[in-house]
Design brief:
The protein is an all-alpha fold. The chain is built from 13 helices and no strands. It folds into two domains: 197 residues, no CATH class; 95 residues.
């Protein structure tokens, strides 16, 4: 069951990450970019839709398996017998887990209906649905099973923890798809898009890392309580493993912020300056090849002025 739960959680996180990246990171940049530069990134849109479709499919299938396994465990029967309508109906109607799954399957149905809607309102609704689908898992975990004082705080905190994990590190998946497309960019405007998206994703990473650290500490307080329990209990040791994985992901984020992002920015500037320098050299060659009596002083000044203006625009983009 643990494996099925992990697959379901990962697929829900990937589903949310695609919508977060599209709406909060990529769309603001593409909206203000030139049409020709946007066209170079058209394959990214298809890849993000495929990521959402596959994540949604895996979420539904793994959710069904999880529900089936819980039905078998709660009824004390084998998997085949657990498919009896009476057992499944009782689990759906009379348990918190069953009612939660009814709501989550309704959300999945709504996402399926909206999956290929490309209008902006549809993107916002899909983002909200995906966030709700992931956040609802807090009711199926330790926070949902708690009866202690502060249960509501624990639930809300766990929901924010899950949503933050869906934005980053799960957001590294759509960002990797974007980088695969950005590596093929060779025009200044395309490189500017790559640099702007990387800056926005770096900012998103910083915000979500802080959120994960705070909500993770609160969860640790509710579930472990003491430093001794951190090493003496199974959950405490699992929490240590999560902290180690989180540290590894922070290293990946630092690599993106301190090395990858500056490299993309430098490449964008170099490409823009290279194009401007190429224009200036072309104008000068044209001047030299034209007969002197047809290339008067005013035309040379106009050509040089256009080249200098292009160079100034390139430097201003820095």
């Amino acid at each position: 069951m643990s494996l099925v739960r992990a697959i379901h959680l990962a697929s829900c996180m990937l589903l949310l990450s695609g919508f977060v990246f599209r709406l909060l990171v990529a769309r603001p940049v593409f909206t203000n970019a030139k049409k020709d530069a946007r066209l170079a990134f058209d394959p990214l849109d298809r890849r993000l839709r495929n990521l959402a479709a596959w994540s949604l499919a895996v979420s539904f299938v793994s959710g069904c398996f999880w529900f089936w396994l819980v039905a078998a465990r709660m009824s004390g029967t084998n998997l085949i017998s657990a498919l009896h309508p009476e057992i499944l109906g009782t689990l759906l109607a009379r348990t918190q887990f069953g009612r939660l799954w009814e709501v989550r399957f309704a959300i999945i149905a709504g996402l399926v209906a909206l999956l290929f809607v490309r209008e902006q309102w549809g993107q916002f609704v899909k983002l909200l649905f995906a966030a709700a689908l992931l956040a609802a898992l807090s009711l199926a975990g330790h926070a949902g099973a708690s009866i202690a004082e502060g249960r509501l705080i624990h639930l809300v905190n766990d929901a924010f923890h899950l949503i933050a994990a869906g934005a980053w590190p799960a957001g590294l998946a759509p960002f990797a798809l974007f980088l695969a497309q950005a590596l093929q960019a060779d025009q200044p405007d395309e490189m500017q898009i790559a640099a702007s998206v990387t800056r926005r994703f770096s900012f998103l990473s910083l915000v979500t890392v802080g959120t994960l650290a705070i909500t993770g500490a609160v969860n640790g307080y509710f579930l472990v309580g003491t430093l001794h329990a951190l090493v003496a209990t199974v959950y405490g040791r699992l929490l240590l493993l999560k902290i180690a994985l989180f540290a590894a992901m922070v290293v990946i984020g630092a690599f993106n912020l301190l090395w990858l992002k500056p490299q993309i920015l430098v490449a964008a500037k170099s490409t823009a300056l290279g194009e401007s320098s190429k224009l200036l050299r072309s104008l000068r060659r044209a001047e030299r090849t034209l007969p002197r009596n047809h290339c008067d002083h005013s035309s040379r000044r106009a050509g040089n002025h256009a080249a200098r203006r292009s160079l100034r625009n390139a430097h201003r983009r820095q």
